[in-house]
Design brief:
The strands form two sheets. Strands 1, 2, 3, 4, 5, 6, 7, 8, 9, 10 and 11 form an eleven-stranded mixed beta sheet that branches. With about 475 residues, the chain is α/β, with parallel strands linked by helices. Helix 2 packs across helix 9 and helix 7 runs parallel beside helix 9. It is about 30% helix and about 15% strand.
């Protein structure tokens, strides 16, 4: 995909398209050939992209506002400290990337999954501030792929169970219409396209329902881990996965891959639409997920919310004007960086509460990569009694090669990912105590950061977490 910067020079307001999947992990991108061709080969891949909380609502709040969860207050999908209800009640929608870009003259569209619970405790036809075009399913009706109701700019449209009602295809079609209209009106646009795939129940389009019959969930060394004696109690209490559980995991994995094919095809549709409108060379496309997903690693049944790599370490690909093709970046970046990145691309003003930093210096072909960059990313989780097993509260850190986690139970985990990429050997009890103290101190330091202080406190490198110092 050859990108031409001349369009951007003529127009200082490039278009921005964010494609967000739900529960996608890194390994599954191998089954998305269009994403690999258009995004990976055609742009920049971020090898160290992490989410602060590996769960839908907290991650989506962070994406919209550029803040860690301890500053949004959104920790879960529950109304007390998460979900649409919390976001709405606390007025967090009054200042998001949508409102910042709208003030800069952008036409903004939100299409697909919003927050869990939308629009409970708000007017039924409620459309959040900043969005000129809005199509989102109400009352969590979108997960099954069929028989859902969309709020389309304040009007309710019911979709049935015909093949053409399949939600991912409907969202792609609406995104295509939005791009066509914005191009016709010669207005810069921001499109936030949020698919449900591959979230459970991972319903595929009929045309994909027979694919991948012989594919199994990855049997990594951590899958159904044999020895978990060095893991926290909630892991130690898990029995080995039975053959029936493994079979269910494999069937779910096949469904997840099938559900992703409509997303993969949707990317091609959007690229072709942009090309037909003469907008491709002036459009940034960003592809990522809200959180990852584990499938049997460390004996865990399918879910998220842990600090293990499968849940926090996600794909992030960017294409666009002056973005080099087929390159990778190893800097530590996170979901709190998306909003300030989009704002800088659009030339929009941003509030001081943003914790993240713009990724633009890592994107442009002709700009030197900064010598100073984030050295550590903050992780957190609040107890959710709906998960099985129940994962205790934790806070943690992810550096370029180490993960440190401290649980509310006083248990700790430390992994050297360079030596132990599958997190089989917990070093917390064998490494020098001073190293653990340094990690714990930085973790506490970042857990109270706000705005600029977050970007200051993550710059200093942490000690090496190797047991041979």
């Amino acid at each position: 995909m050859p990108w031409d910067i001349t369009a951007t020079k003529a127009n200082n307001s490039p278009n921005i398209v964010l494609i967000l999947t739900d529960d996608l992990d890194n390994a599954e991108v191998d089954y998305m050939p269009q994403v690999k061709s258009l995004m990976v080969d055609g742009g920049v891949s971020f090898n160290n992209y992490f989410v602060n909380v590996s769960l839908c609502c907290p991650s989506r709040a962070t994406i919209l506002r550029g803040q860690y969860a301890h500053n949004t207050g959104v920790y879960s999908n529950k109304k007390s400290d998460g979900s649409f209800i919390y976001f709405y009640r606390h007025g967090l929608e009054k200042s998001t990337i949508a409102t910042w870009l709208q003030q800069k003259g952008y036409r903004n569209a939100y299409i697909g999954k919003y927050f869990n619970g939308y629009p409970r405790q708000a007017p039924k036809n409620y459309v959040p501030a900043g969005w000129d075009e809005w199509s989102s399913p109400i009352y969590d009706s979108g997960y099954m792929g069929y028989k859902y109701t969309l709020n389309e700019n304040g009007s309710f449209v019911e979709y049935g169970d015909r093949p053409e009602d399949y939600s991912a295809d409907v969202y792609t079609s609406k995104a295509q219409e939005f791009i066509n209209q914005a191009a016709k009106d010669r207005q810069p646009f921001f499109l936030y396209l949020a698919y449900f795939a591959p979230h459970q129940p991972a319903i595929p389009a009929p045309r994909h329902s027979e694919l991948f019959p012989d594919v199994f969930a990855p049997r990594t060394p951590s899958f159904n881990e044999a020895d978990v004696e060095d893991k926290p109690k909630y892991i130690r209490e898990l029995p080995l996965l039975s053959q029936a559980q493994k079979n269910r995991i494999d069937r779910l994995y096949q469904k997840r891959l099938r559900s992703l094919q409509a997303v993969d095809e949707g990317l091609v549709t959007l690229v072709n639409t942009l090309k037909a409108n003469g907008q491709l060379d002036n459009t940034y496309i960003i592809f990522t997920s809200d959180n990852g997903y584990h499938l049997g690693q460390h004996r865990l049944p399918p879910n998220k919310e842990t600090a293990y790599e499968e849940d926090i370490h996600l794909p992030l690909y960017v294409t666009g004007p002056d973005v080099p093709m087929g390159e990778t970046r190893d800097q530590i970046v996170g979901n709190l960086d998306l909003a300030p990145t989009f704002a800088e691309l659009a030339g929009a003003d941003t509030p001081n509460f943003i914790d993240g930093r713009s990724l633009v210096p890592l994107l442009r072909r002709h700009i030197p990569i900064p010598a100073q960059w984030r050295q550590v990313f903050f992780l957190q989780h609040k107890l959710n009694r709906q998960t099985i097993p129940i994962i205790p509260d934790y806070k943690g850190l992810r550096s370029s090669n180490c993960t440190y986690v401290q649980y509310a139970t006083s248990e700790q985990e430390l992994y050297n990912l360079r030596q132990d990429p599958y997190q089989l050997e917990n070093l917390a009890n064998v490494i020098q105590p001073q190293v653990i103290k340094e990690y714990a101190k930085r973790m506490i330091n970042l857990s109270s950061c706000h705005g600029k202080t977050c970007r200051e406190r993550d710059l200093k490198p942490l000690p090496d977490c190797s047991i041979t110092q």
